[in-house]
Amino acid sequence: MLKNKKTYLFFIIPGLFFYALFVVYPIFSAAQISLFKWNGIGEKVFVGFQNYIELFTNPILLGQFGNALKNSLIIFIMTACFMIPLQIIYAYMIYSKTRGSKLLQSIIFSPQFISTPVIVFIFTLLLDSNIGAINNFFSKIGLNFLVKPWLGLPSIGIYIVWLMISWAGFGVGMMYFIAAMNMISTDSLESAYLDGAGFWKRLLLIVVPQIRNTIFNLILISYITAMTIFDYSYILGGVSGGVDGSVDVMSLFFYRIAFGDNNPLGGNLSENSMGMGTTIAVSLFFIIFIVAVFQMILVFRKDDING
Fold it and tell me: Which parts of the sequence belong to the ABC transmembrane type-1 domain (predicted)?
């Protein structure tokens, strides 16, 4: 009888082993490397927390860190304030099977089959200062004052990156909301309908409260994505993160320092590229981890209050 109760261990141990090998061990390994001065090839020199002190006291490093963190937070805030509410609305329209919902679903999910370089290329064709469709449109309708080199304006660079990410990932988040809405009891929706609640009132008063955990989870996923996104900024702005770092993000900042663009042995700090790179990676881990723990505590507290 006791053996039968412990058979679940045979299912847990393999997954736990690979999780420890490919997730837990790299985290502790990176933390250990961050305590050394090392370029990834030569001898390691133990420096303790000197890498962390340098990261937050060196004006150049701190400036790049702050700029990358600011841009990553802009992506997150824009996603949380604009994209997630739109995803809920469109998911509700598809869930309610409104007219044209099938066509809408196909259009929204279609970007999932397009690779990142192609998406960047599409937006380049739209926003290019010479051949861009948007500038050509403004010229034809006489709004020449709106014709601008959109991709060359540092002030809007990160918002263009956000548009690319949002267009590409809109359907993914919407899929989560549709799945959550399918778990809502139809009795509550029917009761609200009989009580005179309209289409949008049912969304606000019935649907949104019952999918709040999914909303919190999507906010957390959006935060993690914003902090770890790399490919869009790299393709659009290169290793330097665009003009004046306008599209620089945290993962690109880590890549630039750890692997760099000037030295085959490492990043711009060639003598300590791996040491400083892992220092940035560990700092980024804690930035994500602290917010994730806070979000989990918030969700559990709300569940306890409602339960």
Answer: 69-297
